[in-house]
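Allow me, if you will, to draw on your knowledge of protein folds for a short while. The matter concerns a single protein, recorded as an amino acid sequence and a row of backbone structure tokens. Kindly check, if you would, that the fold set down in the tokens agrees with what the sequence suggests. You will find the record immediately after this paragraph.
***
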Amino acid sequence: MATQVAVPKERYIPNGLKFAFGGLAGMAATCVVQPLDLIKTRMQLSGGGRTSFAVAGEIIAREGFFSLYAGLSAGLLRQATYTTTRLGIYNWLFDSYRERNAGAAPGFATKTFLGVTAGSIGAFVGTPAEVALIRMTADGRLPVEQRRNYKNVLDALLRIVREEGVLKLWRGATPTVGRAMVVNAAQLSTYSQAREIFVAYVPDGIFLHFCASMVSGLVTTIASMPVDIIKTRIQNAAKGQSQLGVVTNLLKNEGVFSLWKGFLPYYARLGPHTVLTFIFLEQMNAAYFKYT
């Protein structure tokens, strides 16, 4: 009688660690790309046609080199909320699907749906940190007497609640969630397609992931920038200014193409942030399986 060999059960990372690894990976990537995020925000709020290099030079000349990291605490909190939730929920849904389907991976349409779902939930959770981040990175461009001068992200959140009401923490939540849905849908589809094309020419590994992520970032940037700029303007608007008024004034005064202002720093941030996040995440996952 033949001996039946037991097939080892596929190992999964505990749900709590899925969330923790996702947040830590996003926070590590943010430490690298925060200056690009600040430049992108300043360009989206500016009415001029200056290049990203001109904006960066002006920031350094007026406010000092380390001002490029203004709002870093808010950026880290955003990753601790948005990315933790987004990647944690996505990985949890992905593994749950495989467990219910005998280890079979979900198809492309299902992956897209899971990504959109996880992204929208994560964006709603992360909106307060997003509002604080936009205001802190934009503060330096205002006249001294108009600056909010938040000390850190906690001070920003507390002052917003005290001065404007708790609901203002979710100002721009609708375009924020809409942007997250667009980003996740675009990233999943283009990353998968680019990876299939590049794998015939590039060995599987970090460089392949980098190439596919940069292509994915380009398509995602084109698709998501209009929503992102509208979100930025709404979240930085003065007290009492309606969201519709913000959008109407933007299109009337600056034109439709202003919706893609700051394209270069936006793309330069989104591509590296995507690939760095997933590289850090994969290393954490590998370490877990190796040492536990």
Residues 1-8 have pLDDT under 50 and may be disordered. The first helix runs from residue 15 to 45. Residues 214 and 272 are 7 Å apart (CA to CA).
